[in-house]
Amino acid sequence: MSDALGPAIPASQITPEAVYRSRRELIGAGLASPLLALAGCTEAKAPAAPSLPKDSPDGFRTADVQTRFADASSYNNFYEFGTGKADPAKTAHTLRTKPWVVVIGGEAEITGGFHLENLLKEQTIEDRIYRLRCVEGWSMVIPWQGIPLAALLKRFKPTSKAKYVAFTTLADYEQMPGMAYNSIDWPYREGLRIDEAMHPLSLLATGMYGRPLPNQNGAPLRLVVPWKYGFKSIKSIVRIDFTEKMPQTSWNRLQPEEYGFFANVNPAVDHPRWSQATERRIAGTESKLFAKRIPTLPFNGYGKQVAHLYKGMDLRRWY
Ligand SMILES: Nc1nc2c(c(=O)[nH]1)N[C@H]1C(S)=C(S)[C@@H](COP(=O)(O)O)O[C@H]1N2
Ligand SMILES: [Mo]
């Protein structure tokens, strides 16, 4: 399988798991210490304030506590393999990820079917540590390996008519047992506006935690768009089309009042059936059953990098 993933990931790029405490925990600790001093704890000198680990300014690496590989690969949404969060890890072994062909179509000078290994050839596999916030209310912090989406898209020379990029997942009843339930109008489809697709944070992932992507996480090629709800991060991609019109997307088609095209993480806009103000952060060594609730940040904390893309747009209307 590693052949289909292109060049092997150098060991030097592999990130150790769960090395930092979350920024939010540290903020909480900072508030508590002056109170302790007042309470007469003069014996023990307050330790020098630790230098807080910070997210990299480009957003490529968050310093938040990482999710364990075991959690990130066993609590998934991948409806082609069942609607339960534990289903994909149990059933996705039937997905054949090699050979894997991706069809590039639409408004571009170069189109056609391409073997994944050729698409990845001459591309540098980069390391990113991103938060991913599911619309259902949980979030994870995952080290991904992949190529910037922009680097791949530019190779096909999109024309001036390419205003959007549409993505399609494999749809094969034989390999994907969850398709039989018809929970979604298959194939699973997602889309981005071209400027969102070209943003440096948009990643086409081929691996996570320094290993090839597990099938349940969208092998061999999946999108990761960290400032949007998780459903935009489409898995097991077999088609990428440049389009002039806003493409149809699966969740938006199913429930347009609940899932918009943009789906930017926004604590101020509730889902019609629940609040989006907080999230259950599955990270570190605690069982995911006890995952802490933390406030959800606008654009999932990536506002500094992406808010300019939406200047002048009413984000309540364009949810
Ligand atoms: N093809 C496909 N892609 C998909 C989904 C799906 O059901 N089918 N679920 C989405 C949702 S809702 C989420 S939250 C993320 C979960 O990604 P993860 O399992 O790697 O955390 O995948 C997204 N990509
Ligand atoms: Mo999700």
Automatic annotation (TrEMBL):
Cofactor section: Mo-molybdopterin
Keywords noted in UniProt: Metal-binding, Molybdenum, Oxidoreductase, Signal
Enzyme class: oxidoreductase
Cofactor details (free text): Binds 1 Mo-molybdopterin (Mo-MPT) cofactor per subunit.
InterPro entries for the chain: MsrP, OxRdtase_Mopterin-bd_dom, OxRdtase_Mopterin-bd_sf
Pfam families membership: Oxidored_molyb (PF00174)
Any single biological process term in GO: protein repair
EC number: 1.8.5.-
One of the record's GO molecular function terms: metal ion binding
UniProt binding sites for Mo-molybdopterin: 76, 79-80, 134, 169, 217, 222, 233-235
Function: Part of the MsrPQ system that repairs oxidized periplasmic proteins containing methionine sulfoxide residues (Met-O), using respiratory chain electrons. Thus protects these proteins from oxidative-stress damage caused by reactive species of oxygen and chlorine generated by the host defense mechanisms. MsrPQ is essential for the maintenance of envelope integrity under bleach stress, rescuing a wide series of structurally unrelated periplasmic proteins from methionine oxidation.
Similarity comment: family membership: Belongs to the MsrP family.
HAMAP family with a match to the protein in the record: MsrP
Name of the protein in question: Protein-methionine-sulfoxide reductase catalytic subunit MsrP
Gene encoding the protein: msrP
